[in-house]
Write a structure and sequence with these properties.
By secondary structure, the protein is an alpha/beta fold. The protein has 3 domains: 2-81 and 267-287, NadA-like (Rossmann fold); 86-170 and 296-306, NadA-like (Rossmann fold), CATH 3.40.50; 173-259, Rossmann fold, CATH 3.40.50. Helices cover 43% and strands 14% of the residues. The protein has 15 helices and 12 strands. It has helices spanning 2-14, 27-32, 39-48, 60-69, 85-88, 92-101, 115-118, 130-135, 149-159, 178-187, 201-204, 213-222, 236-243, 272-281, 290-306; strands spanning 17-22, 35-37, 53-57, 74-76, 106-110, 123-125, 143-146, 164-165, 192-195, 209-210, 228-231, 249-251. α1 (2-14) runs parallel beside α14 (272-281), α3 packs parallel to α4 (60-69) and α12 runs parallel beside α13 (236-243). The longest helix is centred in the last third of the chain and has 17 residues, at 290-306. The relative contact order is 0.17. Bound molecules: 1,3-dihydroxyacetonephosphate. 1,3-dihydroxyacetonephosphate is lined by residues 38-39, 112, 126-128, 170, 198, 212-213.
Length: 308
């Protein structure tokens, strides 16, 4: 393992590459990444890097976002199969049809979408800036929000809007069990529940803090004296525990405890071995149709401008 880590670091230097990792990656990937962050931070870092190669240790849409922002750079992903159930729940042709059927709407899409969906979008959001971006539009603005219905419902409730929602969801965040979280709270009455807004509203009702991965982490870092039940992909516990070594973090259980569903199987496809191979072979490489990229870059840039 140490040899592998050394070899990755050497290749990275030799090829002037940068390794970006999402909080849901395996711990060893987070540890070797140059930067670990949420979807917004990864897009911001990709947009400003001077590296020749970006290795995106996350899922496919994150690599695509980086490629759209940096068309002249080589963007690699350790495993091309690392997809996203949420992005898959929104096929571009069906979304484009939905947009066409509702003329006069501003289209806001979550970053967990393909570049082709972003190409029919006015502004992209992440869970960190969704509220801010929605609120940047007048209250009576007609908005289509896709694809995550749970995030959309949450933003509707906190902003008092009535956005038209696409009916998609993340298979990990949909799985958290209300009953098991209630049981855990009974066992740990002092614990606060941290929940990602992709969770169902019944889970969000139990939450003391609702926020993106970065927001949940920040809350824990600022209040390390609490115990936390964490309702998001359990990879985030690695960084939480690293930043708050004395704090107890309990991953919220999914409905079916035998399925390990609070881990995103796509995120976990990336391994140190695959990271090494991808840097060595400069493959698999993300490509985006230039015509789609030209359209998709605008709503991503608009997001980066609003959240700068
Ligand atoms: P964040 O924007 O909080 O990183 O969430 C990304 C994600 O993929 C959640 O499923």
């Amino acid at each position: 393992m140490n040899d592998l880590i050394k070899a990755i670091k050497e290749l990275k230097k030799e090829k002037n590459a940068i390794i970006l990792g999402h909080y849901y990656q395996k711990g060893e990937i987070q540890d070797i990444a140059d930067y670990v962050g949420d979807s917004l931070a990864l897009a911001q870092l990709a947009a400003k890097t001077e590296a020749d190669i970006i290795v995106m240790c996350g899922v496919h849409f994150m690599g695509e976002t980086a490629k759209v922002l940096c068309p002249d750079k080589k963007v690699l992903v350790p495993d091309m199969e690392a997809g996203c159930s949420l992005a898959d729940s929104c096929p571009a042709d069906q979304f484009a049809q939905f947009v066409k059927e509702h003329p006069g709407h501003t289209v806001i899409s979550y970053v967990n979408t393909t570049a082709a969906v972003k190409a029919v979008t006015d502004v992209v959001v992440t869970s960190t800036n969704a509220r801010q971006i929605v609120e940047s539009f007048p209250e009576d603005e007609k908005i289509i929000f896709g694809p995550d219905r749970n995030l959309g419902n949450y933003i509707n409730s906190v902003t008092n809007r009535n956005m038209l929602l696409w009916d998609g969801a993340c298979h990990v965040h949909e799985q958290f069990s209300v009953e098991k979280i209630v049981e855990l709270k009974a066992q740990h009455p002092e614990a606060l529940v941290l929940a990602h807004p992709e969770c169902k509203s019944t889970v969000l009702k139990l939450a003391d803090v609702v926020g993106s991965t970065a927001a949940l982490l920040k809350y824990a870092v600022n209040h390390p004296e609490n115990t936390y039940i964490v309702a998001t992909e359990s990879g985030i516990l690695h960084e939480m525990q690293k930043k708050c070594p004395q704090t107890t973090f309990i991953p919220a259980p999914p409905n079916d405890s035998t399925c390990g569903c609070n881990e995103c199987s796509f995120m976990r496809l990336n391994t140190l071995e695959k990271l090494y191979e991808c840097l060595k072979n400069e493959s698999p490489e993300i490509t985006v149709d230039p015509e789609i990229a030209e359209k998709a870059v605008k709503p991503i840039q608009r997001m980066l401008e609003i959240s700068a």
